[in-house]
Design goal:
The chain is 35% helix and 22% strand. The protein contains 4 helices and 8 strands. The strands form 2 sheets. Strands 1-2-5-6-8-7 form a 6-stranded antiparallel β-sheet. Strand 1 and strand 2 form a beta hairpin. It is globular and about 40 Å long.
């Protein structure tokens, strides 16, 4: 089995965020860093070159593939801010309806800028995702 390509690194999340050129994206990343640190109680770690992750869990698929990954996190990309709320949004449509302007993927929430969303609702969504993770992958 191949290893997960996205692994924790020794890079400082604060240094990574400080290096973001776009001022709004950098400020939004600083806000998410503080929010997710407070919500999760975990110290942030870089996962790969551009994802700030919080917490960790071990997964094992029916196929036999297994590995470790972050419980939640974000990536300040050029096009948008990707917020990783695992394991997805199947049960969170009511929260998403109150969030504001966003797009979703399987386990990724894409936000142009934090000013487009209600931060209290975003926090509620992050907490709901963490509760889902705790149920499936107890710490």
């Amino acid at each position: 089995m191949s290893e997960n390509k996205t692994q924790p690194t020794g890079v400082s999340p604060a240094d990574f965020i400080a290096s973001i050129e776009h001022p709004v994206r950098r400020a939004d990343a600083e806000t998410l860093l503080a929010m997710m640190t407070r919500i999760t109680g975990h110290e942030p770690k870089m996962w790969g070159p551009a994802i700030v992750g919080f917490g960790q869990y071990h997964y094992r698929y029916d196929s036999g593939r297994e590995g470790d990954f972050m419980r939640t996190g974000f990536s300040p990309r050029k096009a948008n801010m990707a917020v990783y709320i695992m394991p997805g949004y199947s049960d969170h449509s009511a929260i998403l309806a109150r969030l504001g302007k966003h797009k979703t993927g399987k386990s990724c929430l894409n936000i142009n800028k934090l000013a487009d969303v209600d931060l209290d609702v975003l926090e509620e969504l992050i907490r709901a995702g963490l509760a889902d993770m705790a149920e499936k992958y107890p710490e």
